Amino acid sequence: MGRPRAFDTGQAVEAAAALFATHGYEGTSVDDLVTATGVHRGSLYKVFGSKRGLHLTALRSHLDHEIHPTTAAIATLTDPEQALTTAIASYDNGPAAGLLLLAAAERAPLDADVAALVAEGIAALEDALRPSHGDAASELASTVLGARLRLRAAPPTASKEH
């Protein structure tokens, strides 16, 4: 019988997700993950298999704990203005889209598993907007995510100077 795991997997995944959401997959080294999670390199590899395995686990967790609860709340709103305002606020002022967008831009074109998870997250937002916006839901989801991407791409000083 092996030793019991000496770290909380959920906390490690949460710390890794925050790091990937801030720096992206390529911008996050295994050393960064070791430092952020407090988990030894060997333990990370034993539990997640690889940096990619941890990234996929973090993205899955992000969908389950950020994206799906956010979109479930949006889906209950039938007033079009309220639903869109809530979607924009949820994605612009919180972590709801950070990891999803970086994964979409950086890894989805190269990794079918990441692409599938990203597609799930985008579809969740489209489905959430459908009760209030009908056929325009897909276009509005693209607008919400595109606006969030533009905010992420803006230099930090641009918003302060203008």
Largest sheet: none
**C-alpha Rg (nearest Å):** 17 Å
Strand content: under 5%
| Topology order in helix (H) and strand (E) letters | HHHHHHHHH
The poorly predicted ranges are none
Task: Write a short abstract of this structure.
It is built from nine helices and no strands. Helix content is 77%, strand content 0%.
Secondary structure topology:
Layout lengths: L8 H15 L6 H8 L3 H8 L2 H25 L4 H13 L5 H10 L4 H22 L3 H17 L2 H6 L1
Helix pairs in contact: 1-2, 1-4, 1-6, 4-5, 4-7, 5-7, 5-8, 6-7, 7-8
Structure description:
Helix 4 runs antiparallel to helix 5 (80-92) and helix 4 (51-75) runs parallel beside helix 7. The chain contains nine helices and no strands. It starts with 8 loop residues before the first helix and ends with a helix. It has 162 residues and is mainly alpha-helical. Helices cover 77% and strands 0% of the residues. It has helices spanning 9-23, 30-37, 41-48, 51-75, 80-92, 98-107, 112-133, 137-153, 156-161.
Write a concise keyword list for the protein shown above.
single chain; 162 residues; 77% helix; 0% strand
